[in-house]
Amino acid sequence: MKMSYRGVAYEYEPPTIDMVEGEIGGKYRGQPWRCSYPRHIPVPQPALDLKYRGVAYSTYGKAQPGAIAQTGNPRKVCPELAETHLANIRRRLEHRLQVAKDSGDQKLIRMLEAESKQLVRSR
């Protein structure tokens, strides 16, 4: 089939894929239309939540519940991680305090010393 797009002529050959008409369709501007799928791809079935005599059931299978991970106190699970975290906080606080002393910012020094006291008390 010869076609033209913006003045450029080309030969269009529709793909030779075996298509299957789906159940989904309707009318658009008076013309009927249907979704079609390649034969090698299965037509998706609608998933429905239904009730029969008050009992709920579904057209798709129920998911199997997965294993639930045991949760516990993080400090008991990994105490060395908590210690490493506190050591990093202390190291960063000492560095910030040293920078504040070098710059001579008295207000920041007081705030960082108060933060250091809070950190010691929370142990």
Number of helices: 3
The main sheet comes to:
2 strands, antiparallel
Global morphology: elongated
Average of the residue pLDDT scores: 81
Tell me the strand percentage band: 25-35%
User: H/E element string?
Assistant: EEEEEEHHH
Distance between the termini: 81 Å
> How many strand segments?
6
Structural class: alpha+beta
Low-confidence stretches: none
Strand order of the largest sheet: 1-2
Helix content: 25-40%
Radius of gyration: 35 Å
Instruction: Provide the number of structural domains.
Output: 2
Q: How do the helices and strands line up, and which of them pair or pack?
A:
Elements: E1 2-5, E2 8-11, E3 19-28, E4 31-38, E5 49-52, E6 55-58, H1 74-77, H2 79-103, H3 106-121
Antiparallel strand pairs: 1-2, 3-4, 5-6
Could you explain the architecture of this structure?
This protein has 123 residues and is an alpha+beta fold. It folds into two domains: 17-58, no CATH class; 75-121, no CATH class. The chain is built from three helices and six strands. The protein has helices spanning 74-77, 79-103, 106-121; strands spanning 2-5, 8-11, 19-28, 31-38, 49-52, 55-58. The strands form three sheets. It has a two-stranded antiparallel sheet with strand order 1-2. A hairpin with a 2-residue loop joins strand 5 (49-52) and strand 6 (55-58). Helix 2 (79-103) packs antiparallel against helix 3. The longest helix has 25 residues, at 79-103. It is elongated, with a radius of gyration of 35 Å.
